[in-house]
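Below is a filled-in request sheet from our internal design queue. Each sheet records the structural input a requester submitted and the sequence that came back. We keep these sheets so that new team members can see what a complete request looks like end to end.

REQUESTER: design group, bay 2
PRIORITY: normal
MODE: inverse folding
CHAIN LENGTH: 303
BACKBONE (tokenized):
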């Protein structure tokens, strides 16, 4: 009877990192290996499964059908591996972690990341608070949060760790409605204080482009609904956009370019707790990979 093949966890980790980052060269840098070592690992994995997993497309690589299947299995195997090590390799964590995040991530990265943390550390209770930047900053200062993921405009925040950077973008309906040159730009924005509102108005004023507030909302869902309905444009990042919306190219729409925003993860300075540190580490890992992947897609886009 033939001996079963055992997949190498390091090889699987390199494969998953390469796909999520959109580049095996980036995976090599992230994992502290040479690009040639990562290429050898990929060939080893293809030899083990007897299938081609990635193929060239233009300047990049894309998954084959077998590669898509392998990616799903690899992620599950790595999660089981990490869960086993987390459960047996260190004392069980307990307690509570209070974390605050912007609304932009409430339905995208947040559920999957917190679900993964809960499976690794079932004894820890997580209280997630989703709100606007200013509110989360105030709650962190008051000691009501242990962790807060905040938008950081031009290095205004101090302390913590910068996880990545996302460019701001003008967001409009996918059907292609753009503002006319002969009338003020209709805007759909949060009320003050708001980093995105400030950036939009400052950019338009600097370009001497007239504007008007056509709709104001305190929730991101309200902004998306108003823009989808054609009430105006808004400014956010391109992360997590509904299918009905799209980021506009400033050159094509006659709008000014916008700055980028950093994402900074801050901790309550009053105390350090192992559960807080572990969740902060996981968030940094997951979101850094996601942001690097988004950066790769944006650079590869026609714009």
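RETURNED SEQUENCE:
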């Amino acid at each position: 009877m033939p001996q079963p093949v055992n997949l190498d966890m390091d090889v699987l980790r390199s494969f998953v990192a390469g796909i999520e980052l959109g580049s095996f060269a980036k995976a090599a840098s992230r994992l502290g290996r040479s690009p040639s070592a990562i290429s050898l690992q990929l060939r080893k994995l293809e030899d083990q499964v007897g299938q081609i997993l990635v193929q060239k497309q233009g300047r990049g690589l894309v998954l084959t059908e077998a590669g898509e299947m392998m990616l799903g299995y690899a992620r599950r195997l790595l999660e089981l591996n990490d869960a086993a090590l987390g459960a047996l390799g260190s004392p069980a964590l307990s307690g509570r972690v209070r974390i605050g995040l912007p609304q932009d991530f409430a339905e995208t990265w947040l559920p999957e990341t917190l679900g993964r943390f809960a499976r690794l550390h079932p004894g820890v209770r997580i209280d997630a608070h989703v709100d606007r930047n200013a509110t989360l900053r105030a709650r962190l200062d008051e000691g009501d949060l242990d962790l807060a993921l905040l938008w950081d405009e031009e290095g205004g925040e101090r302390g913590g760790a910068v996880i990545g950077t996302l460019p701001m973008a003008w967001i409009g309906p996918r059907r292609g409605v753009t503002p006319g040159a002969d009338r003020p730009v209709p805007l759909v924005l949060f009320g003050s204080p708001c980093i995105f509102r400030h950036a939009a108005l400052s950019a338009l004023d600097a370009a001497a482009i007239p504007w008007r507030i056509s709709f104001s909302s305190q929730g991101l869902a309200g902004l998306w609904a108003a823009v989808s309905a054609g009430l105006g444009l808004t400014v956010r990042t391109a992360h997590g956009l509904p299918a009905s919306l799209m980021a506009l190219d400033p050159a094509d729409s006659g709008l000014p370019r916008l700055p980028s925003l950093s994402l900074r993860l801050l901790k309550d300075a009053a105390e350090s707790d192992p559960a807080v540190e572990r969740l902060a580490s996981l968030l940094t890992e997951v979101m850094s990979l996601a942001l690097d992947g988004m950066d790769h897609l944006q650079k590869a886009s026609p714009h």
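SHEET NOTES:
- The chain has three domains: 9-88, 95-165+262-300, 166-260.
- Residues 274-300 form the longest helix (27 residues).
FILED BY: M.R.
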